[in-house]
Specification:
Layout: H1 2-9, H2 11-28, H3 40-61, H4 66-89, H5 91-96, H6 102-124, H7 126-132, H8 145-157, H9 164-187
Amino acid sequence: MGIYLVWVGGWPIFLLGVLSILSGWAYTGGPVPIAYTPLGELFVVAFFGVGAVCGTYWLCTGKLALVSIDAGLAVGLLTGAVLLVNNHRDAEADARVGRRTLAILAGPFVTNWLYAALMVIPFGLLLPIGQAIPRSHVWLALMPLPLVGVLINRFIREPRGRGFNRILLQTVRIQFLFSLLLGVGLVL
């Protein structure tokens, strides 16, 4: 499958594929796994958001556009939020074994703000996406926004531990719903 994608997309897709494979290995392998550093969320945004969306856009159009970067950031930031919930939930256990995730380094107060930003900014990115593609229906992706406020409030108030499993699941659901509605809105 990868050979076909490289044949269609050329060297940029080959490079993205190689970087993705190396990043996947470096995320949990190597001398200093990225998952155990404050860079985990950044790599998730870069590869599960910007890289995936821009790579797909490149394969479909043969070029790169700012709107694809905006869409990739929107999807990637929500993916980063999922990882941040996980790392915040596990911060005490991770710190005991020497991990230095963003949630550990930032502390609970800053992590609350980071989570809120990761959850809200994607909805703000709908404005430039909608302006770049005026006949689209990207506004459909605003539907889960009311749930985001409730979820941010729960994130701030919930003590770390098992209760965060529900917040993690709800964050994944918002990410899925936003991504699905954005995709539908772009197709319509």
